[in-house]
Amino acid sequence: MNEGFAGIGTSTAKVVELYYPENQRIIDDPIAYELLPFWWKVLVRMVFLPGLRNVVLALREKRMPGSLGGFLCRGRYIDDVLKSYLSKGTEQVVILGAGFDSRAYRIEGIDRAQVFEIDLPGASKVKRSRVEKVLGNVPDNVALIGLDFEQQSLEEVVQVAGYQKEKKTFFIWEGVTQYLTPEAVDNSLNFVSQYSGTGSAVVFTYVRKGIIDGTDRPEWLEKFLPLAKKLGSPWLFGLESAELEQFLHKRGLRLIGDVGTDDYKQRYLDPIGRKLSIFEGERAALAEVIK
């Protein structure tokens, strides 16, 4: 898969929300559309034309049930916990597998923290060009870093960019872990626990282990996963909620929260009266570093 289009699906999902009134949006990300590459912006404008938008969304829901709701709700949850940790004095934010993530440019208070956006070299290059196009330049507090998670270590890359391991840091890892080997996941979580200061935390998404090994996989994923593998993005890693606390503790982390479909509905859908299915095979975990 082309590195330059990593995370494009997540960003496109957020653009969908811009067609709803502000008080009915799950997540409000006005810069998501602007950061998309030119031809993706053209495609989005075409498929979301009045009269066609509902047809496209219905087709997506039929082929990938709950994926749109999952993207939106996990994004909102991560926004919320990021804001919470920024209010507690977080000094650095590290976004692993950043794609077209716009948090460094829209979350209130993040300009007071040093932000490191880390992704594959090709994706990082495209992201830089889009940020410069939209904002004029990359903000002084943001570093865009190219990294091959399977071949390079985080510590050797981020320290060159000015990362300071004694500072209170918040790590974001959205929609990435399923594409990595268990060894790469271990290396990243060990970095979080060993190379960050007191009060540091990480929020990350994970898919159920049964989806990876095929023992508990919905029908639509039986069709989707072979295609993902063919495109160079096989799903390799999964976890189960029951083993999450012990899994994290072994890696120097304390589980703070583990949220999924029911939590998302109660927090984000019910208060605004939205009816939206949410993929049950993916959850989000929040953990703090044990010092």
How would you describe this protein?
With 291 residues, the protein is an alpha/beta fold. The chain has one domain (3-289): Rossmann fold (3-Layer(aba) Sandwich). 44% of the residues lie in helices and 15% in strands. It has helices spanning 8-17, 31-35, 38-47, 53-63, 67-87, 103-106, 121-135, 154-158, 182-194, 209-213, 219-230, 241-249, 261-269, and strands at 92-96, 114-119, 142-146, 169-173, 201-207, 253-259, 282-289. Strands 3-2-1-4-5-7-6 form a seven-stranded mixed β-sheet, with helices on both faces.
Number of strands: 7
The helix/strand order is HHHHHEHEHEHEHEHHHEHE
Mean pLDDT: 91
- Cα end-to-end separation: 39 Å
Order of adjacent strands in the largest pleated sheet: 3-2-1-4-5-7-6
Give me the secondary-structure category. Answer: alpha/beta
Instruction: Determine the number of helices (DSSP H or I, runs of at least 4 residues).
Output: 13
Q: Using the CA coordinates, give the radius of gyration.
A: 18 Å
Which CATH class applies here?
Alpha Beta
**In percent, how helical is the residue content?**
40-55%
Q: How can the largest sheet be summarized?
A: 7 strands, mixed
CATH superfamily: Vaccinia Virus protein VP39
Per CATH, the architecture is: 3-Layer(aba) Sandwich
